[in-house]
Design goal:
Layout: H1 22-38, H2 42-58, H3 63-72, H4 74-86, H5 91-114, H6 117-128, H7 138-168, H8 178-209, H9 228-248
Helix pairs in contact: 1-5, 1-6, 1-9, 2-5, 2-9, 4-5, 6-7, 7-8
Length: about 250
């Protein structure tokens, strides 16, 4: 349960966001990131932030999981405020920068919570398919990207197992002072990466036993059809692009 509050974890419940086509979700996420990077318009950032909040509630993932990341980054938000104040950046732009950071991080968590590893690989493969003419190993690339997204939860899971094992032998991490916690963390760092490496090997072997071949296109047994809610959500994301184009006067 601890690892579910981190990036890259998957929370298996039935919700509208879980049922969205994984390709559409990935495209929406890319639209979100690109638009927020390009524009400093307050209204577009607020709209994207509100849309993200709505998706958080529709995902049926406990809100405390999202809030934990927000709380963890509280000092980063304060640093942004102080830096903007030092550089004489006005309050509106400061708010925009904070909204950008919150929206991108929380949207990333929505995607990881509502998209299984299998669907993530499927979405990345299909999104990268226009580059087939370059003869790139798109299947392997998709797997590598997915492993990066899932690395932190696996690392945290391995850490919790080691700490519980140490606690049973008298080296209690959970009920000690900060100095002792730092000492224990430094002590286990080598074993932590070794355990996590073994975990990755176990995942690889499980894929091998399932006759998974990264050199061939995958068979996806779930019917990833584009439904009503896919059209609704991608429409809202396209409205963001249209608003940006209109404000910039590109067309």
């Amino acid at each position: 349960m601890q690892s579910r509050t981190l990036f890259g974890s998957y929370y298996p419940v039935v919700s509208i966001v879980h049922k969205l086509n994984p390709i559409i979700k990935l495209i929406n996420f890319l639209i979100c990131i690109i638009t927020l990077i390009l524009t400093n318009n307050l209204y577009i950032n607020i709209f994207m932030f509100i849309l993200t909040i709505i998706m958080m509630f529709l995902s049926y993932v406990p809100i405390r999981f999202y809030f934990k990341t927000f709380y963890f980054l509280r000092y980063i938000y304060l640093i942004i405020v102080f830096v903007c104040y030092y550089l004489n950046i006005n309050l509106t732009d400061t708010l925009v920068y904070i909204l950008k950071l919150i929206t991108i991080i929380e949207y990333l968590k929505i995607f990881s919570y509502t998209t299984s590893p299998s669907e993530t690989i499927y979405a990345i493969e299909k999104t990268l398919s226009p580059f087939n003419f370059l003869y790139l190993p798109l299947n392997k690339i998709a797997i590598k990207i997915n492993n990066i997204l899932r690395y932190i939860p696996n690392l945290e899971t391995s850490k919790q197992k080691i700490l519980k094992s140490l606690s049973s032998r008298g080296l209690d991490y959970y009920h000690t002072n900060i100095i002792k916690k730092i000492y224990i963390t430094l002590k286990i760092r080598k074993n932590l990466f070794l355990v996590n490496k073994d975990k990755n090997k176990e995942i690889y072997l499980c894929s091998k036993y399932r006759l998974y071949n990264a050199k061939k296109y995958r068979t996806n047994y779930r019917t990833n059809k584009i439904g009503f809610y896919d059209i609704v959500f991608i429409t809202f994301h396209l409205l963001i692009i249209i608003s940006y184009i209109k404000i910039r006067g590109i067309l």
